[in-house]
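Forum: Protein Structure Q&A
Topic: Joint prediction for protein chains with partners

I've read a bunch of threads here and the consensus seems to be that you should model interacting components together rather than docking separate models afterwards. I'd like to see that in practice. Below is the full input, 662 residues plus whatever partners are listed. Could one of the regulars post the assembled result?
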Amino acid sequence: MNRQLKFSEAIREATDQAMGRDPSVYIVGLGVPDPKGIFGTTLGLLEKYGTTRVQDMPLSENALTGVALGSALVGMRPIITHQRVDFALVAMEQMVNQAAKWHYMFGGKAKVPMVVRMIIGRGWGQGPQHSQSLQAWFAHIPGLKVVMPTTAYDAKGLLAAAIEDDNPVIFIEHRWLHNISDDVPEEYYTVPLGKARIMCEGSDVTIIGTSYMALESLRAAEYLRDAEVSAEVIDLRTIRPWDVETVLASVRKTGRLVVTDTATTAFGVSAEISATVLEREFDSMKAAPVRIALPDYPCPTSPALSNDFYPRARHIVFEVKKMMGQELVADMLEDPLGQRLDVPDSSFKGPF
Amino acid sequence: MLRIRIVENAIAESYGEQEMRCPVHLSIGQEAAEAGACAALERRDYVLSGHRSHGHYLAKGGNLKAMMAEIYGKATGCAGGKGGSMHLVDLEAGFLGAAPIVGSTIPIAAGVAFATQMRNEDRVVMVFLGDGATETGVFYESVNFAALKHLPIVFLVENNFYSVYSPMNVRQKGVNRIVDIARAHGMEAHQADGNDLDIVYQLSRQAVTKARTGGGPSLLEFITYRWREHCGPGYDNDIGYRTEDEFFSWKERDPVVAYEKKLIANGVVGQHEMDLIARDLKQEVDAAIVYAKQSPWPDLNTLPSQVYAS
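Posted by a regular:
Agreed with the consensus. Here's the joint model:
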């Protein structure tokens, strides 16, 4: 059996191996060297690489993003971590006005190889300010790259590729993926940015997923198989630049598109993908595309409310069946009594 | 100092031709702070700046022709026409860049110093900022970080009393506020006359030497005055946000004239020699403007390029 690693351990291993290979790589972030080690993703790095290359920081996210940028200008390869996407928002100025622009606005003279890790919270009452998925914000900015791995294998390879990349890369991890294991080779490897992965092949409908929603899409494809619908599931993996050709090729084959995303539907990644597909493959389409993402309000805290906030596999199944003209069962959107929807699985005991 | 004055005057004179099609922020009146501070640096040291950066770029040894061509939006510009006056860069001279979002280059400069420290390099970083930038969040954050990490950096504040048209009394409280912020973080800080070249140089030299020898960061606040409008080539004493009397009182304290007088009085140079130097500098600047005007426009192929480094 191949070696299994959790997503969080894969992040740790990619960081460790990148630091081992390249002395210009360093990591800084609130809690990086603390006993919890950013959900385990930075554990042991301090002991191995010392206090110069593994640093905690003052609660100055904007300045420290500038610090990372400045160090990158003169040859370092910083990784800066934020335990939530929401915490990184005070650093938007440095990421959007500065990091994204320095290569272009200085005519190619400046290079900003830096990785900004952010984590999307979900469930256990993360609420309005610990749960946001803002990949579309970052993807809207020329000069930034945006990566959202789903599997532990990709988490390791994409993080290694992001660290090797000579541009600012926003690396977004979903908290509900951290404990999920996958085959992860021990040796150093990279997964190229900008390439989607076909998780399962199918011929009736293309379901695109980002991050955790790629897993829900995969679950939906299993249910759909019972209903004799052949779904092709694509894990987008990189939001910017996104793999247009893989998506278009799939839609040419299936003629149907469902895009699932961890973010608010409006103005989101699912809108960009749907629009591009309609612009370029309108004649291949057998049905209008469907977007399955978050509703147009902030995430509430109480489980009684947040249970209905997040779409799951059954919502995808429902939409695909509707699209295929299949009979819809009235209670298929109801979850079994007693099932907790605010945790990814029984191993998650909170608090964040 | 004289060279910066002559360059900035030449830009002001040519701006009306409408061929420099970008905002310019001239630093006429502030040259002593710029030249005196950069004179304390070695070529290998780094400088970053904000929107009013022509003087810093030139004082650090930035290429004049490339600067003029950049202001004219030409392919030969230091940023290939993508940056303009507000985004000067000359890596060979150690001028790492300038950006007009007030305060934003302060943490970036701290990051350069952080890298320098991590690699144990013999380099000092100087970041130029104005009084307005000391009101931004990243200023406090960066001062704290630099003090915490004992970074080899000098925060060089040119206090010219106005953020665009907004005077100090609607923005800040207390005449020692800027140096006090640095001191509150355990950082050495001095406030001094920014129009006195010798004082600027001496304090800068001390701060740079301290940073270079492991003594950590310093903040220097130099009091000075911008003669021209915030942005553009003209004077704006008539629009009502400052008085003409105030302007003339500062013009009497012209740092360039004052230093010329000092050099002549001390017998370092004669008036005739000064005139020759000024003439040569004017010729150099005129040639740079001709070079910029005659340079080709950037190729349209460069428009979508350099979004990402490869």
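The mean pLDDT of chain A is 95.
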